[in-house]
Amino acid sequence: MPSPASVPRPVAPGSPPAGSAYRASPVWPLTTERLRLRPVVPQDAEAFFAWRSSPEVVRYMYQPPWDRAAAEQKLRAWSAAPFDDVGDVIVLAVERDGAVVGETMLKWAAGPGQAELGYAMRPDTAGQGLATEAARATLRLAFTTYGFHRVFARIDEENTASVRVAQRLGMRQEARLVESDVRDGVWSTEVVYALLDRELV
Ligand SMILES: CC(C)(COP(=O)(O)OP(=O)(O)OC[C@H]1O[C@@H](n2cnc3c(N)ncnc32)[C@H](O)[C@@H]1OP(=O)(O)O)[C@@H](O)C(=O)NCCC(=O)NCCS
């Protein structure tokens, strides 16, 4: 009798082999109509500081505002981080007309072909669809380059701007986790949005 490890697992049409994402080498930068996306470098610290130091921006990211030392430390760490196994994170700088105006993030999540999406933009760029455009490019990277099967976003229910980004991307609300976390000392509710590789438009 074969050992469980040698039994082939069923593979759905279009799924990556064995339900696992690839260790791919993307071609940078990713380009969209208005944006370029590329992995961060340490020199992005000053640009990231512009929004990551703002309490309003980081409020729903469940992270404290950065000081300059934190910006430098984080960008150094992210720039050197691998992206080839569960738990790894790749952070992309979003450029418009040569200036870094935002970030997107993919986290290699547990489970077959699962990844988490994140995004944040400099506040003065809001309301132009740039976050949606950057996030869509990041979803395409996740599905077509890395071969992830499902990408999800965890969003504080009160973060309506982020919920609208997820909805514009065609992501489906899959869960509402009532009072599953604490923000600013009060219970907060998280909604989970997700998209499958075959659903990206
Ligand atoms: C979440 C966040 C990135 C959303 O930014 P945003 O500016 O609302 O999103 P977009 O750049 O996609 O712009 C969408 C808005 O521009 C409008 N818009 C204008 N031109 C557009 C275009 N060409 N395409 C799409 N939308 C366009 C849309 O109608 C929309 O307005 P609405 O939300 O009032 O309906 C931003 O609020 C942010 O950085 N927040 C802090 C970090 C954060 O919370 N991240 C998410 C954690 S889960």
Could you characterize the architecture of this molecule?
The protein has 201 residues and is α+β, with helices and mostly antiparallel strands. The protein has a single domain, classed as Gcn5-related N-acetyltransferase (GNAT) (Aminopeptidase, 3-Layer(aba) Sandwich), CATH 3.40.630.30. Helix content is 25%, strand content 31%. The protein contains 5 helices and 8 strands, in the order ββαααβββαβαββ. Helix 1 crosses helix 3 (68-80). Coenzyme A binds next to strand 5, helix 4 and helix 5. Residues 57, 60-61, 118-121, 126-132, 155, 159, 161-162, 164-165 line the site of coenzyme A. It holds the Pfam family Acetyltransf_3. Residues 1-16 have a biased composition (Pro residues).
For this entry, give a set of tags:
alpha+beta; 8-stranded mixed β-sheet; 25% helix; 201 residues; 31% strand; Aminopeptidase; binds coenzyme A; N-acetyltransferase
Roughly what percent helix?
10-25%
Average residue-wise pLDDT:
91
How many domains in all? 1
CATH topology: Aminopeptidase
Query: What is the multimeric organization of the chains shown?
Result: single chain
DSSP helical segment count = 5
Give the helix/strand layout.
Layout (H helix, E strand, L loop, with lengths): L29 E2 L4 E4 L5 H8 L2 H4 L9 H13 L8 E8 L2 E10 L5 E8 L8 H16 L4 E7 L3 H9 L3 E12 L2 E11 L5
Parallel strand pairs: 5-6
Antiparallel strand pairs: 1-2, 2-3, 3-4, 4-5, 6-8, 7-8
Helix pairs in contact: 1-3
Bound molecules: coenzyme A (COA).
Coenzyme A binds next to β5, α4 and α5.
Protein name: Protein N-acetyltransferase, RimJ/RimL family
InterPro entries: Acyl_CoA_acyltransferase, GNAT_dom, N-acetyltransferase
Pfam families: Acetyltransf_3 (PF13302)
